[in-house]
Amino acid sequence: MYKCNVASIGFIIMCLVRGFAISAGEDVFTVTNVGYLVLSSTLGIIVGDVLWLEALRLLGAKHVIVIDSLKPFAAAILGRLGLDEILKAPAWGGMVLTVIGVGVVAWEEQRTTPMQENGSNETNIAQTVEAKHRIGFSNDGEDIVHPDTAVELSDENIGNTEEHSSCNSKQQLSTEATNIDSNIMERKQYRRGYLCAIVNVLADSLGSLLTKKHGVGMTTWSINLIRFGFAGVVMISISVIMRFRQQNSKSNESIIEPKGEIECGDTAIQNETPKNAAANEQTPPQWFELPSTLTRMGWLQITAGVGLVTFLCPTLSNYALFQITLGLAVALGSIGPLYGLFFDWPFKGRR
């Protein structure tokens, strides 16, 4: 929401300075062209970004990058079908090499954390086995007696041991059932994540196709103003509606919630109203809210990022879109992780 609207202000300024159309006498802002650019905004910015973020949450970066690598090929196929663009063999080879390079860099970036986690898990397993031997259990689950810990077993100790074994069996069955449910949920989560990632690739590619087909004669500033301006208006509307619903929900809760003291046994507990509870506990902002805890420097950094990512990047990308084929434009626009290698050392201290 913040990105789209701040970038739209910049696009309005540039349109007033540089013009809305490439040729002054050409009527390019027809209902059809503008309507398809609005559809392109809906598919590529609103729907596409939401699905991409959802896939990232469900799958993680590695799997999403693998699916994203299909985007240049999907764009090339759509360009052939919708724009009669033909790619020669060297162009297809360059796209393949680009996708492989991006995939290798991104996969290597995400590979270190799982390896560290596996190492810590192996250490925990070794410590658990050692502890079992120390307290008198072998790997097969049979009792063993070490000379240092041998004690005389009484009837009470034997009863406690049997009860402990029964509790362990019940706990093991409960753990196995929980693991089965967890595996089922994980498979559903992966299916949903892959579906979101694939639909995002198709929506983003189709959005680029519509932009190139119906943005002819417009400046890159006016194309971006229509696309990001529409997305910004939609996001502001959603935010206002959700805030209004949230306020109504809080008002209803404050009416229903009883006030005063609640008897709990022999102790009287002062019931806290929702307003006071919210004041005592600082909750993170909802998905439709802007963060309220950012400092001025934080907002300046975010605004600088918006200027680079949401203002300059789409400006150059749309210009390139009308100069080269759709597949190559999308492929070259996806090599961001390769540029990231040059910023690892000055910003993250990694070489």
- Which ranges are low-confidence, i.e. pLDDT below 50, for 5 or more consecutive residues? 113-154, 260-280
Average the pLDDT over all residues and give the rounded result: 76
Structural class: mainly alpha
Compute the gyration radius: what is it?
Answer: 29 Å
Provide a compact summary of the structure.
By secondary structure, the chain is an all-alpha fold. It has helices spanning 2-18, 31-59, 61-68, 71-83, 89-135, 155-214, 220-256, 274-280, 296-321, 326-332, 336-340, 344-348, and strands at residues 261-264, 267-270.
Description of the molecule:
With 351 residues, this protein is mostly helical. 74% of the residues lie in helices and 2% in strands. It has twelve helices and two strands. It has helices spanning 2-18, 31-59, 61-68, 71-83, 89-135, 155-214, 220-256, 274-280, 296-321, 326-332, 336-340, 344-348, and strands at 261-264, 267-270. A hairpin with a 2-residue loop joins strand 1 and strand 2 (267-270). Helix 1 (2-18) crosses helix 9. The two termini are 35 Å apart.
Blueprint (SSEs and pairs):
Elements: H1 2-18, H2 31-59, H3 61-68, H4 71-83, H5 89-135, H6 155-214, H7 220-256, E1 261-264, E2 267-270, H8 274-280, H9 296-321, H10 326-332, H11 336-340, H12 344-348
Helix pairs in contact: 1-7, 1-9, 2-3, 2-6, 2-7, 3-5, 3-6, 4-6, 4-10, 5-10, 7-9
